[in-house]
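Example 9 (inverse folding). The structure is encoded as follows.
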């Protein structure tokens, strides 16, 4: 059994991840792939409970380290219970956010040193034999944070992160772009400020390239 592929979708608030993950799923299923869709924080019963805590306004002012550690606790559970078993069973996993989000939000946004985040990344994503799990392909939906927040605001009440100031979201965006420049073989950036049809055309082209590479 060939291992499945791990695709992550990233970007700041309201950028269209949920909308476009449905589209990606449809394309992959048309190609005959078995797809599992998930999200972070979340994806397991424990992870979803941690998500509720993390997004809840009652915890405004949560310490930065507690926030980071909860993200990685949810991720450790997600990897053990869902992501790794699905990949090993040959399924393709599409995940709405993964560790790049910790670097962007807790690193870029909150200012936690990248070496501290990388320590946790190695802890949960690296095994004793030295192997490490990283996404095979990351789609970064990039948008001016003001437009994303407007879109998210139209959709309903804002969560604990969405209440942050605009400079926080600008730092998040810049950290995502920096990471994409650092790993061009993994990232594909899509201008998410375009119309939905245009965004989906770009995504389809990127996926075609990726699945061709994946099958070679
Ligand atoms: N977080 C973190 O800090 N550290 C971590 O390690 C992880 C996460 C993993 C929850 O994530 C929070 O967790 C997140 C970061 C933090 N911060 N916040 N907030 P989330 O992914 O659940 O939250 P989100 O980014 O706010 O996602 P979202 O609100 O679900 O937005 P979205 O999925 O990207 O967008 P959408 O729902 O698909 O689209 C938003 C609206 O725009 C909707 O009405 C669409 O119809 C519309 N839309 C979409 N595309 C377009 C285009 N192209 N044109 C016009 N309108 C559009």
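The amino acid assigned to each position is listed next.
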């Amino acid at each position: 059994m060939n291992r499945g592929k791990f695709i992550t979708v990233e970007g700041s608030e309201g950028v269209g991840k949920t909308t476009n993950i449905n589209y990606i799923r449809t394309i992959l299923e048309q190609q005959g792939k078995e797809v599992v869709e998930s999200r972070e924080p979340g994806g397991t019963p424990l992870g979803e409970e941690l998500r509720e805590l993390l997004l809840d306004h009652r915890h405004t002012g949560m310490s930065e380290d507690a926030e980071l550690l909860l993200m990685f606790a949810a991720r450790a559970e997600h990897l053990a219970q869902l992501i790794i078993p699905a990949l090993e069973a040959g399924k393709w996993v599409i995940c709405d956010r993964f560790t790049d989000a910790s670097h962007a939000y807790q690193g870029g946004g909150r200012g936690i040193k990248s070496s501290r985040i990388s320590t946790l990344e190695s802890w949960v994503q690296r095994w004793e034999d030295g192997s490490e799990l990283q996404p095979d392909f990351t789609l970064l939906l990039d948008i001016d944070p003001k437009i994303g927040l407007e879109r998210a605001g139209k959709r309903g009440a804002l969560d604990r992160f969405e209440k942050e100031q605009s400079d926080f979201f600008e730092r998040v965006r810049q950290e995502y772009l920096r990471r994409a420049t650092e790993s061009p073989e993994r990232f594909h950036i899509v201008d998410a400020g375009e119309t939905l049809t245009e965004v989906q055309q770009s995504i389809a082209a990127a996926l075609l390239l990726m699945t061709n590479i994946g099958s070679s």
